[in-house]
Amino acid sequence: MPRxxxxxxxxxxxxxxxLAVMSVLRVALEVQEKTMDSQLYVSLFALxxxxxxxxxxxxxxxYGRIGMGTPPQLFRVLFDTxxxxxxxxxxxxxxxxxxxxxHSRYKAHKSKSYVKNGHNFSIAYGNGHVSxxxxxxxxxxxxxxxxxxxxxxxxxxxxxxxxGTTFDGIVGLGFSQIGWxxxxxxxxxxxxxxxxxxxxxxxxxxxxxxxxxxxxIIFGGIDSSRxxxxxxxxxxxxVGYWQFEISAIFVDSRPFHGPVTAILDTGTSxxxxxxxxxxxxxxxxxxxxxxxxxxxxxxxxxxLDIQFQIGDESFxxxxxxxxxxxxxxxxxxxxxxxxxxxxxxxxxxxxxLARFYTVYDAEAKRIGLAEAVLDLx
Length: 377
Hints:
Layout: H1 3-20, E1 23-24, E2 50-57, E3 61-68, E4 73-80, E5 87-89, H2 98-101, E6 115-124, E7 129-141, E8 144-157, E9 169-172, H3 186-192, E10 200-205, E11 211-219, E12 232-235, E13 243-246, E14 248-251, E15 254-257, E16 260-264, E17 271-274, H4 275-285, E18 288-290, E19 293-295, E20 306-310, E21 313-317, H5 319-322, E22 323-327, E23 332-336, E24 338-341, E25 346-348, H6 350-353, E26 356-361, E27 366-371
Parallel strand pairs: 4-9, 5-8, 16-25, 17-24
Antiparallel strand pairs: 1-6, 2-3, 2-11, 3-4, 3-7, 6-7, 7-8, 10-11, 10-26, 12-27, 13-16, 14-15, 14-20, 17-25, 18-19, 20-21, 22-23, 26-27
């Protein structure tokens, strides 16, 4: 792996870390969802479920494909349980905005179902942000056609890491409490339109090298072949994020911390730990300080399991699950997949989600978890 690719991977890990700590800079929007003059139909018969394949780029990008507009314009997107807003690059972004120009861009003038909104938006990501204006159009995910989605057309990407991402934009799968004011996010919109018999979705991720099959997201259903045993459900503690309570955390079966609040976040690669306990976690699992950062043994020698007590069930991450390996022609380095966050809650990103199959039940406001089957093709 060339050094430039190592640097890109490092930047990507930082980028996905910032995705989890983003905050919407709320302007005083009075967003009105307009009746669309030209809409595609909503099926009279709800779909049983919709399976959408996700692609995996080096375990830092899990993305799927959608269409926006009529006829649909194709985009690669992150399906992000850590946010509720949807945005895509705009064809009106300036030529000098490299990140925007390098990705597929939405062309409102080519869509028969486009409705102008025009309110400005900005979303902050810690060390950068995207900004632009809001529009309304029909989004297509597989066979599901969802008219009337208010989404962002980005004009500026104030973060260099966007230049190298494979995905073009983001589809938020959170609730309206964390979305733009007076708008209905994608998840709630297709539930309101009865696109599926059940208002749930499930996520299966795989950690694999290269750009390969990365798993799947199923809207409206569950694939029982992707997990072991039975699903264990816990309630969403505060509606907005997919947030729940961890009653206790153990390291090598010894009590370490808890209770804590956590969210499941498909939009970040790592597990983010509150700054107040970050160092203690690293030291407890066996990480060592090297060049002012924590390093771990690439052969995982001396590293310990970490267990999360969620409801009545314990969910264990092993060293092979959380060790991140970075290689160059000169050296191989390894680190844990944990990063600090200035927050009181834990963010369980793709490192956690690749070990556990997760179900997101928007009707019952609950989350289901079970150990994932790792060896399926």
